[in-house]
Amino acid sequence: MSPRTSRQAxxxxxxxxxxxxxxxxxxxxxxxxxxxxxxVHGRHDLPWQHPRTPYRVWLSEIMLQQTQVRVAIPxxxxxxxxxxxxxxxxxxxxDDVLGLWSGLGYYARARNLHAAARTCAEAHGGELPRDFDxxxxxxxxxxxxxGAILAQAWGDRFAILDGNVKxxxxxxxxxxxxxxxxxxxxxxxxxxxxxxxxxxLADYTQAQMDLGxxxxxxxxxxxxxxxxxxxxxxxxQGRTGELPTPKPGKALPTREATLLLLRDAEGRVLLxxxxxxxxxxxxxxxxxxDGEAAAxxxxxxxxxxxxxxxxxxxxIAHVFSHYRFNMHPRRWRAVATAAAVRDNDDLxxxxxxxxxxLGIPAPVRTLVEAQFEQDQEKQP
DNA sequence: AATCCGGGGGT
DNA sequence: ACCCCAGGATT
Length: 380
Known about the structure:
Residues 63-214 form the HhH-GPD domain. The chain is α+β, with helices and mostly antiparallel strands. It has helices at 3-7, 31-41, 54-63, 69-82, 86-91, 94-101, 108-123, 132-136, 143-154, 163-172, 182-194, 201-214, 233-236, 292-302, 362-378, and strands at residues 254-262, 269-273, 284-285, 288-289, 303-304, 311-312, 316-319, 324-332, 336-337, 347-350. Residues 1-26 have low confidence and may be disordered. It binds a DNA duplex (11 and 11 nucleotides) through helix 3, helix 4, helix 7, helix 9 and helix 10.
């Protein structure tokens, strides 16, 4: 297998000059019901479908990269009205193109579109080439977009793999793993190609995207209306809610804090009420300081004792939705609050039997209760 | 293969 | 503030 073939999205050695194919649609349980559904429920009045020229298909595919259909439609109509052909686009100043793109975002798409049009004008007779490799060589066109253009504009037998198709295939085949992961994406491409029908490639391509956009949605898919339900692994296993596997969350930022675990002569623990806003708002917790210096300062303000007598305990990691909280507890025994500091609404010495009645963050409660357990072991 | 890039819209 | 969306380019 040549490198060229292995990189290709198509499954035939060469695309047929005309899309005419024997009227024996593949018996694939995927494509056939999907096409039948598309005939009745698919989207047939999108602006780039009438007329469905290569240039309009290309423009729509670029506009729809990372952009929702509803958002792209008015931009598409404005754009093709101003620049109706590849030649017109190639001849236009870049500033005009960017002006037509203004508000759509991802402006590199517009710059690439313009550059690609000029390449077409110079190297492809002023038209978009009907060739997979030539398309992929143009800026802004990758494997999926090239396949979409060839299939939709000419009915050539190429697969696509956009966000919609990834979602549909991941569910239909019960594929675990984030689709952006190369190994997962490779499997998805394999299925995308295996399901290609022998005819109606333009409709089939649109049908996949319509299914993903209207039924097999990210949240609350309409499985009861889905033509692919009979063969859908995720549906059979009740896993439509967990497939496709979501993108792994990026590394959470971390925050470090020192916790002061203070015991008095009676063994009570000093607890402090947390501020009214923020995490663990208004719960009782250990006095907390941002770092050693702040801990030392708080100790000096509130406690009679020697800070250096504190012993470092094992750190505690707690993960919030938006950051990782690393707590570094430090323990003192038999200390007292300074004369000026008295129990109040926000700071008090708490005996063991009063812990249960207080709102205390779970990791802090675990830490404090472990202290009392240690007391018992030492003097049963 | 992993990372970066990009901007509007919805939550 | 965060995630999603008809991905591609770069390293």
